[in-house]
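User: Protein folding is very new to me. Would you mind checking the protein record under this note? It all follows right here:
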Amino acid sequence: MTIKAQRGTKDILPEESTTWQWIRKQAQNVFQNAGFGEISTPIFEATELFNRGVGDSTDIVNKEMYTFCVGGADKNASSITLRPENTAGVVRAYIEHNLNRISPPQKFWYFAPMFRYERPQAGRQRQFHQVGVEMFGASEPAADAEIILSAVELLNSLGLNNLSVELNTLGCKNCKNDYREAIKEVIKPYLPDMCDDCKMRFEKNPLRMLDCKNEACQKIFEKEEVKKVILKDYICNDCKEHFDELIKYLDSLNINYKINKMLVRGLDYYNRTVFEIKSESLGSQSAVCGGGRYDGLVEMLGGSPTPAIGFAMGVERLCALIDKKEPEKLDYYIVSTNTAEAIKLARKLRKMNKKVDYDFQGKKFSKQLEKASKIANFALILGDDEIEQKFYSVKNLSTGEQVKVSDINKL
């Protein structure tokens, strides 16, 4: 029986990897130009990290984590989870390595695989990849603007310009508590008609109900008395000033945005600013970027109080939105039936940082030239005459022009 890749996973083949490499290179350029350093954390962490950090009212923790018990049934057994998102892991690394001792803000970026057990669909897999950033130690609205700007700059660098930035503010801890209670009070009469997920969220994190995609729940949110509470501002003066100043920064940067009071994001740790960047090209799964503030998460996971903000983008979704990148051609393909000489020449050219390949299967010259025309810019012909007279015949595979070269360093 043929063994195939697991459902919800996908091989990235060489013809696709060029696009992936290009996205990663664009991310590296944009983020490093803005002072972000790359961070790489393990793909699995202690399960407790996500239970505490992501939140037990989220679908991720309740339904989607790949969790394993390791160490057997004895007292040394422990529970580990393949990371479903990267913020909690980066926060753990920030605390563990005492990065708070370095002058803030600390700015990190990553490009890495994540794992969630969910129904595979367009742009969404069980093993998927995210590119994102995290910033620690800056509470100012300018930090929010910097993060949103970095997301927009990356998307623009990928050729994605017609995007919609949606914003909301959840307020601080006190603001969120008042908002939660108001939502619970107005929703309570309709709770029997809501989905099981919302019934659970009602007790644990009622704001998460607003993120529900269930049609029956959506109709309840559209009721006039419910919508009135949802749209009412419960944020304190400090949080309002923070959000208003962020808006001014975005206006000065000419970033198009709209305020969406229903936007709460899917994770428990968010506070104050939350945002999504959307594209209509992906249908119902339109978000290509999501992020926001999580000022309480570092302290929740054992660190000192530290303001923080970040975002993540799904790389598979980005691939679906951009034009496929063609692989770069080789600089030279060595056409020769003398394999020993071809190997030595290839080695010399590769040391000169040239992209070079050759035939080592004894194919005819015509077949080698045919292959060279498909994968290289130049054919470097090394026949008996060239070897005997110590020169190289170099053929431009675009124009057909052919010249003799005696010094390899002049190639």
